[in-house]
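User: Hey, quick favor. My workstation is busy. Could you predict this chain's structure for me?
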Amino acid sequence: MPTPLPLTSRLKDALGSLSARLLVAFLLPTLLFLALTGSSVYALARSILEDELGNSLSAIAAATASQVNGERMLTIEPGDDISETRTWRNLVRLLTEVRDASGVRRVFVVDTQGRVRVDVGGGLPVGTEAPELARDRLELSRVFSGQRAASQVLFQGTDGRLYKTGYAPVRRESDVVGAVAVEGSAAFFGPLAQLSRSLAAASAMALGVLGLVAVLTARGLARPLRRLMDSALRIGRGDLTTPVPPEPTREIGVLARELEVMRGALESRDRQLKLMLAGVAHEVRNPLGGISLFSGLLAEDLKAGAHAEAAGHVARIQHEAEYLQRIVEDFLAFAREQPLSREPVAAPDLLHEASGLLAADAAAREVTVEVEAEPAVLEADGSLLTAALVNLVKNAVQASPQGGRVRVTGRGEREGYAIRVQDSGPGIPEAEQERIFEPFFTTREKGTGLGLPLSRKIARAHGGDLRLVPSPGATIFELTLPLNTAAIVR
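Assistant: No problem, here it is.
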């Protein structure tokens, strides 16, 4: 099997491909547009100019034909150009004046059989068939039927220039007895060719500018993408502390922000994992040490026959084992992603049930637990919310002095449904308030430090939150649920 490319190589190839694609995206449509537009404009201009030249030449031919006497033209016979008869000279003079006045190259007159009668500028003798007429047979048929016409194709003269011929009929009374042909140079092709070259140069310049823009754009995109690539590679290598730099471009900026959010979440999760591992190691070490100590004492007492002392050691071992079991359960509950099983839950029943589970602990400390809840139906996971409330009520009972009071209230508010647990204990020192939701942070000797973080996790899983409400002379924790999970009954 082929060895897959490393991630860095694949990302660099992707950036190179992006630059190439941008170049193609910029240049190919522009090249096609310029080519199609340039060729269309050139063809249209040439067609218009050719038609205009043909009309002009045929108009000159018509004006000349109107001055030619068809009867006299037919009297010109071979040899008249040598003897220079009067009729031949008069017609030559007329055609010469037309040629000089109009600036055309050649003017000649032919009969209906295509034989030359007078040729000014071409040099063909009288009676010779003009070979040029063979290419314009269709046009000549129209001329001999009494219409003006111009050759449809350009032809190249001996001087290398392109020419066109205009024709007009010569009449004798109502009969067409011949045609006047006027050859003119397509002089417009010089400027048209220059225009074509200028257009090509402008197109090349435009393509060069667009290519430069494409390269700069590709670099402008590749640079922030390369920074994102470097950040992604750092995160992939385990560097979760270096922040992802923000990017000014909107779309890439969104990617940078989302990557930074992901990095922050991974960093937070990694920090929590390290704290959990350290906390578990610390919390498990103490009960394991106690179990090892008391099991050793138990073995010694059993050998010595001190059964009363042995029973006490067994009780201590069981107590440490229970504490160890609670640490493991709390750790698993905090680390596990538990799916919610939502169902309608009556808020007053939820509060009374959670408080009732702590009745024995409260009675042992002579603490009174008061419950006051407005009617509401919550769409929630009842067992998980009960566990969260038990943690809050248990903390409040343990923090209250002997004979104290704990108030558990539930009320519908604009933001949703708020459940408050308040005790009359000494409160939480200000220096510790920012750390109470950190995993494994606790001030109790036998506390795991997972109760409050687990309760907040459950609240946030329901779309709510858990926070400490600052209040002088009391400790108040507020668990809120959003409106879309609570239907308040008035």
